[in-house]
Amino acid sequence: MFQLLQSGFFWWPVFILAALGLATARPSRFACFVVFAVLLGFFSATTHASGAIKALLWVFYGLSVLVLWFGPLRRAFISNRLLKFYRASMPELSSTEREALEAGTTWWDAELFSGNPRWQQLLDLPAARLSAEEQAFLDGPVEQLCGMLDDDRICNVDKDLTPETWRFLKERGFFGMMITKDYGGTAFSNMGHAAVILKIASRSISAALTVMIPNSVGPGKLLLKYGTEAQKSQWLPRLARGEEIPCFALTGPEAGSDAGAIPDIGVVCRDEKGVLGIRLNFEKRYISMGPVATVLGVAFKLEDPEHLLGERTHLGITLALVPATAPGVKTGTRHDQLHMAFMNGPLFGKDVFIPMDMVIGGPEMAGKGWRMLVEALTDGRAISLPALSTATAKLATRVTSAYARVRRQFKLPISQFEGIRESLARLAGNTYAMDGARLTTLAALDQGHKPAVISAIVKYNLTERARQVMQDAMDVHGGAALALGPRNPLGPYHSFPQLGATVEGHNILTRNLITFGQGAIRCHPYLLQELQAASGTDEKAARREFDKVLMAHLAFTLNNKARAFLHGLTGATFISMPTAPVALKPYYQQLTRMSTAFAFVTDVLLLTLRGELKRRERLSARMADVISQLYIASAALKHYHDRATNRVTWCWSPGYARTASTRSSRVSIPCSRTCRTAGSPGACAPWCSRWGGLTARLPMRWTTSSRRRSCVHPRNGTGSRRACTCPQTSNRK
Strands, DSSP E only, in 607-683? Predict the structure, then answer.
């Protein structure tokens, strides 16, 4: 043993393992210095290495301690030089980019970017729930509305909702779901809003869009958050009662995805009576609800050449309310949006004068419209479009699975053919994942989170999965899905995925620029702090703050590198998991491993590409795909956890069951079982978990008694009966 210690070949692996261990544990710098001092002491005392090598190692150790421990030396030799390099290589953020980054909050997206997500935090998040009032609204007015809707007639004959349907929507408060009760609304939660949209969409996409738009991208929510008391009192009760129909006019002929480039101009001036206001000219198109709107929320760039509001001439993007009956406002010819019957069309304004108090939030909010725009778009991305996409997927899955059972070819139901089963499997899997992502995001929103990056993730991925779902459904139906008519429930829904991919930020833009581009800055633990420190005006304070954040960032990167390396070697076997069924352990472990690798690769890209990463769209898109799939997988686990907690009784035994022998391996049967006391014994489905993460179902037969039910492994007979005994419980399903 002493001879082994004297060998230098023994100590190099020791130093490497120590470095990996410290990088993984992330102790304090003092603890790291102590550990390496002890190791160097033993190395010097036991090895036959030359004195020069030992002296060189101690000199390197001493210099490292001096530079890394003492702030002035570290800043002089490392941080200040890196700060100059950082400022030269990182692009400056425009004012609109800064406002977009500051809008909203971070949540589970930041956990995934950290490389070490805290799963218990996600699982402990209360599941989204409907209140009794919201459930009554679904069972009453929404059910009545669905009975009034004939989607084939709406889309192919009338091209509009019936007058009775319009009147019903206004009288029953469908346009005021997000307005507080103080102003006559119903004050539904985000979950309640989404549930109403989803149910209506399962009957008619056109009707769902008609209800969705005033509650998500209309000016109502902006008035609630930013409006003056006078504006709230004047407009919100009328919006809640349906006396005013709102629309949100942003997109123009020259400004689509690049909303910051809108050419519409408003000039601060006084009219002939001396009233301070804005002379506005605009041209908008593709405006949902535009043809029937009575009040327009218009986005434009505000100019103040006479400095009537202050010293600034170019105030920036501003949002204002414009009555549709104001002189100079004109509604163009209605658009035909892929034969869907919801209202959409162009709007024009020529020398429209509005008083200054029509600016949302009053004169104080002039020029602050970009952040308001971003927050308005977030609601549509996180609530409405996921609800519409999931409704499309659920309807397609239900209709297609039933059709595959009753449609026969070659004397067999087509559901018996593997090609059809492949499409049905994608339908079911995509629908489950979409519903999980939707509900998890709604739960976060109802708890007060405003995750802008996650809203982009669910918008892009759920609309894209809706495309895949509809493609699979159309493939299974074949010719039956092509002939539009009352007996084709899929036809009107085939057009929606393209609409969903286009609105609220096109999917190409969302994937290539927003998801990872914004997420890397907003969700990274240190990058935004470094940007803020580097742009500080106080040079001394900026250097001190940058040094502090830089050291933490380096430790974070080394930690993720070490953990990614060790998890790769061990297959993530030793990663701890939250309180969840044992069979799900491999999924939590592998997702943690992928999150760690993703965080490390993000830092590598930021270091090597720096500002160039902003222009590497394809690379950014691939990284967006990674974070998107991590979130959707996380949401699926959360969705499963919530359903198991609230609808399934989990039966636990102390420890594992006896091991059942098979020809290929020894399989341990975990002592968690999903059980339902009502129905056939087959409702209890034991999961068998192999060491290493592979899962498989083993066949079971059942024995029953008056006090318990037990499933017995056929190869082990009664020997493993105690392994999956499920006690009698209430009739919860």
Answer: 649-652, 660-661, 666-667, 672-675
Distance separating alpha carbons of residues 339 and 342, to the nearest angstrom: 9
The residue among 432, 502, 492, 446 whose CA lies nearest residue 201 is 492
Over 80: is that where the pLDDT of 703 sits?
A: no
- Do 340 and 155 touch, CB atoms closer than 8 A? yes
Burial 131-152 (b: 16+ CB within 10 A, else e): eeebeebbeebbeebeeebbbb
Q: Helices (H) and strands (E) in the chain — how many of each?
A: 28, 19
Q: What is the pLDDT of residues 17-67, one digit of tens each?
A: 777 777 777 778 788 888 888 888 877 877 777 788 878 888 888 888 877
By the 10 Å C-beta count (0-12 exposed, 13-18 middle, 19+ buried), 267 is classed as middle
Q: Cβ distance 514 to 456 under 8 Å?
A: yes
Write the CB contacts of 92 (distance below 8 Å, at least 6 apart in sequence).
535
Short-list 232, 218, 201, CA closest to 290: 218
Share above pLDDT 70 across residues of the chain, in percent, rounded to a whole number:
85
Angstrom distance (rounded) from CA 172 to CA 193: 14
Q: Which three-class secondary structure state does DSSP give residue 565? A: helix
Residues in the chain: 733
Measured CA to CA, the distance from residue 533 to residue 543 in angstroms comes to 7
Residue 380 CA to residue 250 CA, distance in Å, equals 14
Q: What residue ranges define each of the domains in the chain, with the CATH number in brackets?
A: 2-69 (no CATH), 98-127+393-630 (1.20.140.10), 245-367 (2.40.110.10), 649-727 (no CATH)
Supply the mean pLDDT for the chain. 82
Q: For residues 415 and 425, what is the distance between their CA atoms, to the nearest angstrom?
A: 11
Active site residues: 504
Q: Are 512 and 468 in contact (CB under 8 A)?
A: no
At which residue do the structure tokens 């209506």 appear?
200
| CA gap 354, 376 in Å, rounded | 22
Among candidate residues 443, 637, 605, the one with its CA nearest the CA of residue 516: 605
What DSSP letter does each residue of 523-539 carry, written as one string? TSTTHHHHHHHHT-S-H
Tell me how far apart the alpha carbons of residues 441 and 55 are, in angstroms, rounded to a whole number: 58
Burial (CB count <10 Å: 0-12, 13-18, 19+), residue 195: buried
Q: Tell me the mean pLDDT in the region 522-549.
A: 88
Q: Token digits for 696? A: 């498989």
d(CA 649, CA 673): 8
Q: Does 696 have pLDDT greater than 70?
A: no
Name the nearest CA neighbour of 525 among 561, 550, 562, 547: 550
Q: Is residue 419 exposed (0-12), middle (13-18) or buried (19+ Cβ within 10 Å)?
A: exposed
pLDDT tens column, 538-555: 888 989 999 999 999 998
Return the SS3 of 696: strand
d(CA 470, CA 202): 14
Q: Amino acid letter at 64?
A: S
Q: Which of 648, 682, 638, 690 is nearest to 665 (CA)?
A: 690
Q: At 220, list the tokens.
A: 């109502």
Residue 651 φ then ψ, to 5° = -105, 120
Task: Please choose, from the candidates 39, 131, 90, the residue with its C-alpha nearest in 3D space to the C-alpha of residue 446.
Answer: 131
- In angstroms, the CA 468 to CA 497 distance is 9
Quick one: CA torsion of 382, 384, 388, 393, rounded to 10 degrees?
20
Find, among 361, 283, 261, 363, the residue nearest to 328 by Cα: 283
Whether the per-residue pLDDT at 380 is higher than 60: the answer is: yes
* pLDDT > 80? residue 710: no
CB 465, CB 428: distance < 8 Å = no
